[in-house]
Amino acid sequence: MALPQDDIELLTQFKNEATKERAFTAILKKYQEKLYWHIRRMVVEHEDANDVLQNMFVKAWKGLANFREDSQLYTWLYRIATNESLTFLEQQKKRSTVSMSDEETGLSNKVKADTNFDGNKLEWKLQLAVQKLPEKQKAVFNLRYYDEMPYAEMSTVLETSEGALKASYHHAVKKIEEYILNN
Amino acid sequence: MKIREDILNELKAISAVVANVPYLNVYIIDNEYFAGIDAGLKARIAADALTGSENKFTVPQGYFENLTATILQKIKTAENEIFAETNEQSTLVAGIGNKNIFTAPKYYFEELAFAGEEKPVAKVIKMSRARSVFKYGAAAVITGLLGLTIINIVDRKDVKVADEISVQTAINDAQKIIKTGTFDKELESISDKDIEQYLQQGGQDVNAALVAASTDDETTLPEASDYLLDENALENYLKEKNLN
User: Fold this and answer.
1) pTM exceeding 0.80
2) Share of chain B above pLDDT 70, in %
3) Does residue A121 surpass a pLDDT of 70?
4) Do A126 and B7 count as a contact with CB atoms less than 8 A apart?
5) Is the dihedral of CA B50, B53, B58, B61 positive or negative?
6) Nearest-CA distance from A69 to chain B in Å?
7) What three-state secondary structure class fits A149?
């Protein structure tokens, strides 16, 4: 898929020292919200999401000079964001002395700790159900349900076949349904 | 916030329950957050550029070039220190040195390396079954003797006693056989009669040698229980082998 014209221009500007910073700010402005919400739904807490977002943009800054223009800039950024989120969750798990199931409960607890949490509302139940999913399946569900990403692009982000992604999304939805019906 | 039509249809096909969940972003952040994020990030990138993420440690010039020599020097110094310390206690003990006088059985370490794995099977070289039992006997008895040529010397009618020169020649010939690996060929050249005669001259029990040599990996001697069940077990075995 061809790179949008504005992305091509931004990348050209980024490769020029004089316009590098301005171009990066423009990329940041263009994608920061989408990426923030993707990360936030993965790690739940704002502080963690902010850390992960900053880390991923630092990595983007370093890697952007070598970015191959035959791929989409936004799928490339999503890939960094997803990998950073998964790494963050992995590190949290390692730091935690509790077992994996307790770690999942930990994420659920973070959801419940949100000032606006209302356990009776379906949308919050859905969030609790999402946090119970395995991390990669959670990423698949979020990218499809919230980011409305086509499977072909998800395939680039997660480096997984479209068929496997469709199956993963199906399983995720079924698990969420089961959780909502039983809670 | 509205879910896209195709995503909703896909969701409905999988689960009507999930499709009916209000499509809302439950998380809320400060309106100012996104406005200030670029400033914070730029500061981070600038700080990162200052500190850098590459390896900041350095090694003295020529460190790796001299590393091997430095380590060897350390080993030598340590050895000398041990010698000096022992020497202080006893000149005699220090003078003996610390050379290892023990030896491990042959192939011990090779076999040790295979511990837990399947041990390599020793190569078994079979002698031709076509050869007479006399040759097995000869091969068994002459192992450890000087060589096959001695048989020829002793057996020759004109030579009553192997004199020193003949023995030396025999040794040389034996070494040649070992070197060229023509043991089988030399063995073939000796007749059964010559071998039997040689064994008798050397005071060997020819029958015992033949019985011992007639058992190879495919032939088994009677079991202990065979003797209890049949008093003729040994006799039958010898008959079978044509040795009685």
Assistant:
1) no
2) 48
3) yes
4) no
5) negative
6) 23
7) coil
**Chain A CA closest to residue B9:** A145
Report residue B14 as tokens. 């999988």
Whether A174 sits inside 8 A of B14 (CB atoms) is yes
Mean per-residue pLDDT of chain B: 69
Interface residue B12 vs chain A (CB under 8 A)? no
Contact list in B for residue A25 (CB cut-off 8 A) is 38, 42
Q: B48 and A53: CB-CB below 8 Å?
A: no
Q: What is the pLDDT of residues B149-199, one digit of tens each?
A: 555 555 555 555 556 666 677 777 777 777 777 767 776 777 777 777 776
Determine whether the interchain pair B40/A177 forms a contact, defined as Cβ–Cβ distance below 8 Å: no
Annotate chain B with three-state secondary structure. CCCCHHHHHHHHHHCHHHHCCCCCCCCCCCCCHHHHHHHHHHHHHHHHHHHCCCCCCCCCCCHHHHHHHHHHHHHHHHHHHHHHHHHHHCHHHHHHCCCCCCCCCCCHHHHHHCCCCCCCCCCCCCCCCCCCHHHHHHHHHHCCCCCHHHHHHHHCCCCCCCCHHHHHHHHHHHHHHHHHCCHHHHHHHCCHHHHHHHHHHCCCCHHHHHHHHHCCCCCCCCCHHHHHHCCCHHHHHHHHCCCC
User: What pLDDT, in 10s, does the model give residues B202-233?
Assistant: 666 666 666 565 555 445 677 777 777 777 77
- Alpha carbons A55 and A33: distance in angstroms, whole number: 15
Given B4, B11, B34, which is nearest A173 (Cβ)?
Answer: B11
DSSP secondary-structure letter at A119? Answer: T
Structure tokens at B43: 């500061």
Q: What letter represents residue B110's amino acid?
A: E
Residue B66: its pLDDT value, please?
Answer: 67
Interface test with A, best of B27, B38, B42, B45 (most A CBs within 10 A): B27
pLDDT above 60: residue B52 = no
What share of chain B in percent tops pLDDT 90?
A: 9
Mutation target vs B (from A47, A131, A177, A182; most B CBs, 10 A cutoff): A177
Q: Which residue of B has its CA nearest to A167?
A: B14
